[in-house]
Structure prediction request, 549 residues.
Amino acid sequence: MAPDAGSATRTRRTRGEGQWALGHREPLNANERSKKDDSPLNVRARIENVYARRGFDTIDPADLRGRFRWYGLYTQRKAGIDGGSTATLAPEELEDRYFMLRVRIDGGVLSTEALRLLGELSSTYARDTADITDRQNIQYHWIRIEDVPTIWARLEAAGLSTTEACGDSPRVILGSPVAGIAADEVIDGTPAVEEIKRRFIGADEFANLPRKFKTAVSGLPDVAHEIHDVAFVGVHHPEHGPGFDVWVGGGLSTNPMLAVRLGAWVSLDEVPDVWAGVVGLFRDYGYRRLRSRARLKFLVKDWGAARFREVLEREYLGHRLPDGPAPETGERPFDHVGVHRQKDGLCYVGAAPVAGRASGSMLVAAAKAAERAGSTRVRLTPQQKLIVLDVAESEVDGLRTALAEAGLHTDPSPWRRGVMACTGIEFCKLAIVETKARAARLVADLEQRLAEIQSDIDDPVTVHLNGCPNSCARIQVADIGLKGQIVTDADGKRVEGFQVHLGGRLGFEAGFGRKLRGHKVVATELAGYVERLVRTYLAQREQGERFAH
Ligand code: SF4
Prediction:
């Protein structure tokens, strides 16, 4: 007889979830074993001293498929393997001898010099690939292990790094792309982002977490704070002034959960210590038995906000945090596209590639265009966009023209603006379907099909494409979320397609899109499907009604 759910839960509780703080120090699965056998941070020396010199075939599989991630390296998918046939393949049959390399750009902050370097490295070592991810990273493909030490040295000379860009570690810290320049920000979180990076990224203390850990720090609600492991969101405290409201336990993927507020207020100076407290708590109390339950959100769900805050304050901070108010929540995380006024009177100009697909030459062109317009600062956004800061009004038109020539549009159609896509089958070993090229075709198709009603779309409809059930492109919080899977077409053939989620949203009234049971679309019919949805929405919406509500 199958055990009932209650007895399964009781059994799990009795045997524990692998929390270090409760004495479970013996590794409970292969990932935990690998991290215990050798700190993942130690792999850097082996890459520099052995693998880069002796070549791909000398790489220890435990490093290749495990510890390399701590330096932003994944093998990429071999070309030509379709999404329905991967389950039976050995890792070496699926993976290429080239790597994806993720460069963390905390807060999305770049100088034009660094942007130019990122572009040049792409042209030299990455076959001109350089996607802008929805976590403000730059992602290269086609990297050879032999070139990695040189790439690191050049990145690090410009203050950039790939350390802990992936792996069970504190990943890139998202920050408002307009931090320090926005007239309406509550507080500039940049010093806290820099301090966390300086003190804790690449430190042994947090190099072995139960799972990945995502952080956002922003004085504006523009970084999708609801779906982070920890987020610090700008808020005015009636007594203490500007500071941050703390949120924990958000995350998407297969068990999506929205973060919860701890109800605590934190000053700018104290953000790094509170961040370290939350990460330490996750390291010690996080569930290490099953990777599918290892993200912080599961612990937060079991404990609730009050107990989480109490343990954080008692065991990690040693003092109480003051209670604080909730931040004002925006309509939705804004993408900063177009021309906007900075608080110092200059302008910032936000531009959109298609679904984050950029290139080395595009980045170099953007750096040159920005410099010609008198700027030395750019930012990447969590919506896969690029912003040029500090532009005098007289330079704006010239800059917009130059960016457009590079493929970066500052007055894009709602589709170029609202479509996001993950890496997909082109390079990702987990993918089931193709996403990036499909997103580009979708944008072009919708621009044509819906040209005559484009001006009626006052609130861009967001369409996010994922190549598999993981949610790298945040499908659950899009107006139209598309989860890649193999579906059956009208002729009974198994083809690439998508499960549809409708009506997800961040910001005001945040919530996940509804998965429509049995509602799947064949990939080749995607543009027609989205067109029908949008036309129906525009025809039937009531005054002030948005797609999600
Ligand atoms: Fe790969 Fe899936 Fe993430 Fe897309 S959503 S990048 S296919 S793991």
User: Anything to note?
Assistant: The first strand starts at residue 73 and ends at 77. Residues 1-12 have pLDDT under 50 and may be disordered. The pocket of iron/sulfur cluster is lined by residues 422-424, 428, 430-431, 466-468, 470, 472 (CB under 6 Å). The two ends are 44 Å apart (CA to CA).
